[in-house]
């Protein structure tokens, strides 16, 4: 058949054709079919998966027939010439790559600058200008990077469509890149098609496919692929592929599969590989087999810093801080180099163990070595200094951080709050908002705690209202508990009870506990009893709830009700365990209990305590008698409170350290009113700084004042 005569009107200008395009929202793409007067507008194939392309070609043929019929109504119908059938992709004749220096260079430059969206848009220009002309391999490599970064299936399919249409022949490297692109974009079926259709597959190819399945939460598929590879290559599979298989077993949580892979490693003799033993250690750790992880570590012939760090992370993850500390000492003795990950892990360990001096030493060593701490390590250091009352050091580290994330801000804000520095906490919160960082629930909890500890009721209301206005930060039970206690501390009991009644969340033990605290602070027996009934029903085995109720009855002179609570405790088989306070002197912990006489320096401790009590009485100290505490049983209430464990720890610190050294006391219970008052007088007399970390917060005593602003005198726990 001879070609039809030229059309009288360009089909793309025909009103009916334009209506068809508008109806189906077709994107313009000019494709020359070999006839100068005939152009069509088709949907780009770049946005379609591979298995739709045959269907698309048929659709294009049907559209061409429709256009011809609409535009040449007066002419007799003639057979439409058939398009030449393209050869399969792998057998198609390779076209000569025509370089577009400016466009290709622009695409590669955009990708290098991280402007991936603009790079993919530039590909559309290349397709419009010369759809069947191959681009350089470096440009395709850049486009694969851009599509992978965008994680869009349309962009990924467009890149491969252009390769196919232009006749570009990828090498092994480019095939692996395309495979990884499809996997990153979530196109698992298309990726499998590419994987199965590749002319050759290297071990890297298998690793890429398996890794993509693991990342897509398909660990069983990855292990099935490894079995195929093992049957095909056996010991020639290579350690990197085995690492991916071990990672699949880790995600699956199958210690059985992990042990089988461990056997494969032993058969292949890959134990000397740097990363494979680390993957096995991590797998055993995630499966809860810590001892087996340690055996793998001990079996490594030579241990890199990565192996040491992996084992340290295992101990840290499972709370084995003492074993992590022992391993760290062995690491230092072995001469292995320390890196940022080592410092970050050990800072968390030192924080748990309360080894502030060790943390300071490792921080100094980090500075001397010239290593730059990463954002995780810096945040851990800020958190450590905050937990141990070193707020100036925490702020110094925070300000010197090269970059910060929201966790860094939250650590500092929470630290200021717990140390009674509410003004600085709010200042940091406002600075965070000014820098355009969106706060989360942890941020609001930290700043609300700061308002609660510092008594900033108006600012607390404003911040809570700001939180409720944002749908992404709707208050949770812990935020309501802060507001309830904030109202209760100011005597606003109606508002506190209204919060718990109108709360959209189901009241929790923390919320009822805050209301109980409010009732006790204001000696409102009815409100406190209501909260206590709810609280004891939810937590009948928690002794502290009974202690709060005991304090309330005793402070109100209701001895009979207090005895009833004690009887309830006995019937429930509960008892108040003796509280403990301890102080670290010369890297050794010294523990004290109520009326303790086990310390070798007991006589000196009590002698110094007697002297201090006489001096502070002359300054106006008066003992408080109306409080029941967890370290004193009810029948011991008349015993002098000078024998409390925290007082003994302070006296020991005074006789065991230099006259100007600050003291840090840790205790398992809340600091009582009387001890709080005594320590204030002691700092006034001795000119010492004393920090007490109790069960709820820090207290910094200096020259007769406390950072909490005497907040503890109005608390119930």
From TrEMBL:
One of its GO terms (biological process) is RNA modification. InterPro entries: DYW_dom, E_motif, PPR_At4g14850-like_plant, PPR_rpt, TPR-like_helical_dom_sf. Gene3D superfamilies: Tetratricopeptide repeat domain. The keyword Transit peptide applies. GO terms for molecular function: RNA binding; zinc ion binding. It comes from the Eukaryota. PPR repeats lie at residues 304-338, 339-373, 374-404, 405-439. The keyword Disulfide bond does not apply. Keywords: Repeat, Transit peptide. It holds the Pfam family PPR. Residues 620-711 form the DYW domain. Belongs to the PPR family. PCMP-H subfamily. NCBIfam families: PPR. This is DYW domain-containing protein.
